[in-house]
C-alpha cells in the first residue's frame, strides 16, 4: 500500500477512483485522501484568458470549471489570487455616499450530513461587486 503524503503512515486503504479512473487511497491515521502518483496539469495562458472572460459573464465557478476543463479547487484558488491582486491595485475608484448591500447565503453538506457548510455573500446592489464573502460552518 502507498504511504500517506501528509503523515507518512502505511495504514492506507483503497477508497474509490478519481474522475480520470486513478485509484484513490485514504489514510487511517489522519483521514487524508490522496492519489499515489498525481499528475500536475499546467493551465495555459489561453485557458486563463477564457476563464477571465467567463468570470466577467458571471457564470458559476462550477460551470466555468466544466467549460475550461479545470478543477473547481484550482479555479477557486485562481479567482482568490485575482481578487487579492485586484484589490491591491492603485487607482480603483471609491464609491461616494451610501453603499446598498444585498446579502445571500447558501449551504451544502461536505463529506457527510453532519458537516453542513455555509457560504455568505454581500454584494453591492448597484455595481454587483462582491463586497464580502464568508465560508464556514
Quick take:
This protein has 137 residues and is of the alpha+beta class.
Could you explain how this protein is built, in words?
By secondary structure, this protein is α+β, with helices and mostly antiparallel strands. It has three domains: 1-39, no CATH class; 45-87; 101-136, no CATH class. The protein is 26% helix and 32% strand. The longest helix is centred in the middle third of the chain and has 16 residues, at 72-87. The protein is globular, with a radius of gyration of 19 Å. The two termini are 34 Å apart.
Overview features:
alpha+beta, 3 domains, three-stranded antiparallel beta sheet, 3 helices, globular
Helix and strand topology:
Blueprint: E1 12-17, E2 23-27, E3 33-35, H1 45-56, H2 61-68, H3 72-87, E4 101-110, E5 112-124, E6 130-136
Antiparallel strand pairs: 1-2, 2-3, 4-5, 5-6
Helix pairs in contact: 1-2
